[in-house]
Structures are given as structure tokens and as C-alpha cells.
């Protein structure tokens, strides 16, 4: 009898717990929410045939495109990469925030030295506060042409999508194919100082499709049921081409960009730059039509250089309930979608302006309202002098270059993050990257006579938690061109964009600080500007570069150093023991 009160108290506590679990079932999973998922990436050569030509390409586990990584928000990923090829390799987990895990970010000579032949490295990081479609790719030279794959981050369990639950999800990876070895392509361009040869085909999930030479069998077929909703996870993994994407006779609903939910909007055609991801809903027709529909992509190009002006196609096929009708699919007419002109900058501007953060109570747009540091960066082309030992084919022994604020970035011989962490920056990098262009001029008008760029390994240093506003301004030097700029380690908010030269007095008055697009890669408009804001809440060294690989090769890149904060959870931990050495 003496134990009765305590037993009653225990039962009351249990009743409260059971009621809580009944009312809030997600609590029952909270303790076991995080899962550690292990993957092994064997970097190996694989013979692949496209366009009736066979070549040996660099792959992960012999797959092209590479294996899909699937995780949930909050999961830890442990990915062992073993290099079996002659090339040095690193892997970047594009769009993953890497909160306090910068050692796993992946860009060669920025956060790590490359993984050499016969060596391995374990990328260990947690997916914090992100859900949606991202991707992984090689981040050294041009190896990402074939070394890439999708990252699918599902919401936490019992956390539904803020849109119609899809019947099925389909990854769509846009890419480029060269018949030649892409390393030989960029090496030849580097030797001559001229633009590299363009690709021989564009691809969808590694396949060129029936419009390309000798490729009728190398065609992706997406089979759908009538009256269903499909989620297409789009990734532009192309090296050098922004892409229009469309499905004939179908409307797409954009619901996410760069793993951030957006306000849904419908479109027949969307624009996606290299580095970007976009999730769209495809609502199939209620009755199976007697036709097939092209899933197509073709380049959006605004620059002066040649580009691969080819269209890649996959096939959308409806499943018929009657087997006899399903067998006649090969004889059905194929409808193709219309596209904007290849250089339709008006379409590009209108489309990008339609992308808005969802900004709901559950998924707010946390736009920095105040600004601690302001930067104005010009991005564009130029030329630089070649050494006497080089035989560059530009005028007066010069080569084409690209620069940010007239600084063409020189890759170091050791990783910037190691140099920063251990206080060994001398001779590796300097902290005098200019906050503004060294010379003011009419950026989108007549170029200055002197278009020579300077060179250096320069960075910007930010204090922890500083809010940053960055205006990226295209220039007309050699030719105006759009530039998809990617920032590692952060998402930023695109608070404004426009044509011509940025006006620091008038344009900020029109900034969207309520529901701007939140992305990790933004297209700087051809002959225009884009303004972004972000919070420097992630200590480490973070690369920012054009995601047109040719421009990155020419030097259109720089790095930000974010210093440690005062608290323990605001500091970058020491590197892992297996971090590769240079």
C-alpha cells in the first residue's frame, strides 16, 4: 500500500507521454531521426559508347551518370572515395551547406588537396536544414563532365512536401558529351590561350537522344500513367551551357530551386544554369493520348564564343491500359516543344524574376535586413600576357582570361583551408581582394582600351555572422555574357537584378526583402547585374566561381574566408586524419 501513490504518479506520467505521442507522432521518431548513411565511390575508368564512338571515361563505380545519393534532412553522410585512375580527384557536394564541415566541401586546392591515385578520403558531413534536389560532381579540372550524380534529400519523416504528393519521382540530369577526352580539350585550350572546342552533344541522363547522330537507341524513355503527378528533379550538370528545358504539350509547375521550396508557378519552358537544380511537377493528361512527347533541352547562350547549338531529347510515353495499344508506341507521332531564341535575354529575366521563396511559416525566407559589409564585383572576360616560353595564339602572345574585379584567380599549390586553419597563409594567399573594381568604367557600354587583367590568389575575410550584400556586375569586355555564379558553403537571397549598370542609389530601393529566391547559384544577366545577400554563419574557406567551366579555367573565381565565432559551435573543427596531402 505504501507504493500506491508513487504508482499512481507513474501512471499519470505515462498517460501524459502516450497522449503526447498520439497527438504529436513525430516525437516517437525524434530520437532516431538521424541516420548515418554510408556510400563507397570507386573512381574507375569505364568504356562508354555515344554517337557511335567508344572512349574510356572517368566514372564512379563504372556508372555514367554516377550513383544517386539518397538521404533525409538531418542525416549524416559518410562517403569513402577511392581513386583508381591516373587523374587526381576531388568530389564536391554541390549545394550542401557543410555547416562546420568545410573539410568535406571538395574543391581542389581550396578546402583539400586532391585524392591521388591509389589513395582514398572519407567525406563526412551532416545535412542540416536542407531538403530537395542537389548534386555531386568532381571539382578539379574538367572531370565533372562524367563524374557527377544526383543528391536527393527527402524531408524528415512525417514532414510532407508543401505541394501535391507525387505519384513518382524522376531524376533528370542535363549534361554534355565530347567525343574527345575532356582533359585533352581543356589542356589544348590552355596551351593555345584560345577557347576550348565545344561539346559534340547534349545529354539527358547521359543519353543524347534521337536527334543526335547515331543515337536513336541512346534515348531515355520516361513512361507515365495518365492522370498522375510526377516530380521531376532537374539538374544542369553541363560544363559550359545554360539550358532551356521543356516537355511538348505539357505544363510544368516549379516548386523548388536549389533545394529551397518556392512559390509554385507554371511554365511551358524553364531556364536552368550549370550548377542549378529545379524541381517541377508534371501533371499527366487524364486520358492516354495517341502520341509521344519530347522531353527536350537546348542551350541558352549570350556570349561571343561558339557553343554547341544542339537539342537533346528524351521521350515521354503514356502507358495504355490495353496491351495492344501499348505495343503501338513506336508508331505514334512525336511532338516537339517550341523554344525561345537561343539568346532570348528577355525570357531569361522574366523567368528568373518569377522564382520566389515560399516564405511560409514553416519555411521562412530569412533575408538579412541589415548589411554589415557591401561588395561590388565585376565579372567578365579580359586578356593576359603569356610568358615567353608559351606559344599563345592571342594578339601579341596573349590569352583569353576571366576575372572578378579584374583579378584572375591563381590556384595555389596547397589548400587554402589548411593554410588558413594552421595560420600558414604566407606565400599561399593574400587578404587584399578588392571590395570594388580597381577602375570604374561604363561596365556594359564601350569597353576600356586596356582590357588586361591582373592575377593573384586573393581572398576576402569576413567576421563570423557578418551580413553581406554583394552586387555582381557583368561587363561587355570582349562581349557581354551571362555568368552562373556559385557560392560554396551558403545559400544567398537574390534581392535584385536588372539590365545595364547597377545604380547604387536607385536600384536598392526596389530590392525584394520579403520573398526573394534563395539559391546557391545565380545567373548574372548578360549585360546586367544581380544583387545577393547572405549571412556569414559558417566558418571556413568558401569558393565562389562561375559554373561555366571554361570561365573557371580562365580565372573567374575567388574565395571568402569566414572566421570562427566565439562559441564552440561557431568554430571549424580540426581536419580529419585522412585529409589528402599535396
TrEMBL record:
Catalytic class of the enzyme: oxidoreductase
Gene3D superfamilies per record: Cupredoxins - blue copper proteins
UniProt cross-references to InterPro entries, sorted A to Z: Cu-oxidase-like_N, Cu-oxidase_2nd, Cu-oxidase_C, Cu-oxidase_fam, Cu_oxidase_CS, Cu_oxidase_Cu_BS, Cupredoxin, CuRO_1_LCC
Catalytic activity: 4 hydroquinone + O2 = 4 benzosemiquinone + 2 H2O
Cofactor remark from the record: Binds 4 Cu cations per monomer.
GO MF annotations in UniProt: hydroquinone:oxygen oxidoreductase activity
Record's protein name: Laccase
Organism expressing this protein natively: Stylosanthes scabra
Name of the coding gene: LAC17_1
Amino acid at each position: 500500500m505504501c507504493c500506491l501513490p508513487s504508482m499512481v504518479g507513474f501512471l499519470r506520467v505515462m498517460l501524459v507521454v502516450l497522449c503526447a505521442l498520439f497527438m504529436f507522432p513525430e516525437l516517437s521518431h525524434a530520437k532516431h531521426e538521424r541516420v548515418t548513411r554510408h556510400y563507397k565511390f570507386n573512381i574507375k575508368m569505364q568504356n562508354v559508347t555515344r554517337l557511335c564512338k567508344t572512349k574510356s571515361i572517368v566514372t564512379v563505380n563504372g556508372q555514367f551518370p554516377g550513383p544517386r545519393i539518397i538521404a533525409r534532412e538531418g542525416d549524416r553522410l559518410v562517403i569513402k572515395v577511392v581513386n583508381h585512375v591516373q587523374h587526381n580527384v576531388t568530389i564536391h557536394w554541390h549545394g550542401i551547406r557543410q555547416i562546420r564541415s568545410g573539410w568535406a566541401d571538395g574543391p581542389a586546392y581550396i578546402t583539400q588537396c586532391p585524392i591521388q591515385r591509389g589513395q582514398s578520403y572519407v567525406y563526412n558531413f551532416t545535412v542540416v536544414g536542407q531538403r530537395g534536389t542537389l548534386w555531386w560532381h568532381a571539382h578539379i579540372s574538367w572531370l565533372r563532365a562524367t563524374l557527377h550524380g544526383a543528391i536527393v534529400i527527402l524531408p524528415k519523416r512525417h514532414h510532407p512536401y508543401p505541394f501535391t504528393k507525387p505519384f513518382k519521382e524522376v531524376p533528370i540530369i542535363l549534361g554534355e558529351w565530347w567525343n574527345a577526352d575532356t582533359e585533352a580539350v581543356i589542356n589544348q585550350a590552355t596551351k593555345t590561350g584560345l577557347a576550348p572546342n565545344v561539346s559534340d552533344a547534349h545529354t539527358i541522363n547521359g543519353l543524347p537522344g534521337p536527334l543526335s547522330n547515331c543515337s536513336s537507341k541512346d534515348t531515355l524513355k520516361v513512361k507515365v500513367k495518365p492522370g498522375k503527378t510526377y516530380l521531376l528533379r532537374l539538374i544542369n550538370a553541363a560544363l559550359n551551357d545554360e539550358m532551356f528545358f521543356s516537355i511538348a504539350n505539357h505544363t510544368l509547375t516549379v516548386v523548388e530551386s536549389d533545394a529551397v521550396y518556392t512559390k509554385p508557378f507554371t511554365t511551358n519552358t524553364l531556364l536552368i544554369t550549370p550548377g542549378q537544380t529545379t524541381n517541377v511537377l508534371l501533371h499527366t493528361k487524364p486520358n492516354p493520348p495517341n502520341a509521344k512527347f519530347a522531353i527536350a533541352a537546348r542551350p541558352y547562350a549570350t556570349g561571343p564564343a561558339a557553343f554547341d547549338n544542339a537539342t537533346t531529347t528524351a521521350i515521354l510515353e503514356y502507358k495504355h491500359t490495353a496491351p495492344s495499344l501499348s505495343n503501338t508506341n513506336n508508331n505514334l507521332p512525336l511532338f516537339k516543344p517550341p523554344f525561345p531564341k537561343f539568346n532570348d535575354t528577355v525570357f531569361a529575366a522574366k523567368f528568373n524574376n518569377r522564382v520566389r521563396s515560399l516564405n511560409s511559416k514553416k519555411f521562412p525566407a530569412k533575408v538579412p535586413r541589415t548589411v554589415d559589409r557591401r561588395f561590388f564585383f565585376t565579372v567578365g572576360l579580359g586578356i593576359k600576357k603569356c610568358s615567353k616560353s608559351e606559344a599563345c595564339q592571342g594578339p601579341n602572345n596573349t590569352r583569353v582570361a576571366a576575372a572578378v574585379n579584374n583579378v584572375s584567380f591563381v590556384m595555389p599549390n596547397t589548400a587554402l583551408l589548411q593554410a588558413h586553419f594552421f595560420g600558414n597563409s604566407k606565400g599561399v594567399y593574400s587578404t587584399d581582394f578588392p571590395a570594388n573594381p580597381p577602375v570604374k568604367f561604363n561596365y556594359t557600354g564601350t569597353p576600356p582600351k586596356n582590357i588586361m587583367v591582373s592575377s593573384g590568389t586573393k581572398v576576402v575575410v569576413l567576421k563570423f555572422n557578418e551580413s553581406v550584400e554583394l552586387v555582381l556586375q557583368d561587363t561587355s569586355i570582349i562581349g557581354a555574357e551571362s555568368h552562373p555564379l556559385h557560392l560554396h558553403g551558403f545559400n544567398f537571397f537574390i534581392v535584385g537584378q536588372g539590365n545595364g549598370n547597377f545604380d547604387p542609389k536607385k536600384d536598392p530601393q526596389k530590392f525584394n526583402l520579403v520573398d526573394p529566391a534563395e539559391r546557391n547559384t545565380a545567373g548574372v544577366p548578360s549585360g546586367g547585374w544581380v544583387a545577393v545577400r547572405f549571412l556569414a554563419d559558417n566558418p571556413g574557406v568558401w569558393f565562389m566561381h562561375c559554373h561555366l567551366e571554361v570561365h573557371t579555367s580562365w580565372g573567374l573565381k575567388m574565395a571568402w574566408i569566414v572566421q570562427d565565432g566565439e562559441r564552440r559551435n561557431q568554430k571549424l573543427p580540426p581536419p580529419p586524419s585522412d585529409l589528402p596531402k599535396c
